[in-house]
Design a protein that fits this description.
Layout lengths: L7 H12 L6 H7 L12 H14 L4 H7 L4 H15 L33
Helix pairs in contact: 2-5
Bound molecules: zinc ion.
Length: 121
């Protein structure tokens, strides 16, 4: 996407995914951050450790729910998680927009717009 082809919906969805995944539910994070199901009964010690970390960070997610959600393709899992954040938690989303062109800038704390070049440091 360039400044000429900027699409606010596309930009907003990418921004939510990149910077506000903490507004997703534990299940949504579990099935959008990894492209394989991270479940409790893994035989691999690294996966078991990752599972433990995620349970601590996000709270418990049932393996059956993770497996069931993986029936949905990755792009659709992401789209529905982002949809839910936008429809139910938009008030908690810090939309950092350029004061000059109103486009979403790269991060919630950026003070420079890579679309139009405006700098408000
Ligand atoms: Zn701008």
């Amino acid at each position: 996407m360039t400044a000429d082809t900027y699409d606010d919906d596309v930009a907003l969805r990418a921004y939510v995914l990149r910077h506000f995944s903490h507004l997703m539910t534990a299940l949504e994070r579990r099935v959008t951050e990894y492209n394989a199901p991270i479940v409790s009964d893994s035989n691999h010690s690294k996966i078991a450790k990752l599972h433990e970390f995620l349970e601590d960070r996000d709270g418990h997610v049932d393996d059956a729910d993770v497996i069931a959600t993986f029936e949905t393709p990755y792009e659709d899992r992401i789209a529905s998680a982002v949809d839910r954040v936008l429809s139910t938690r938009r008030d908690q989303l810090l939309e950092n927009r350029c004061p000059h062109c109103q486009r979403l800038v790269r991060t919630p704390i950026a003070r420079q717009c890579l679309w139009c070049g405006y700098d408000w440091h």
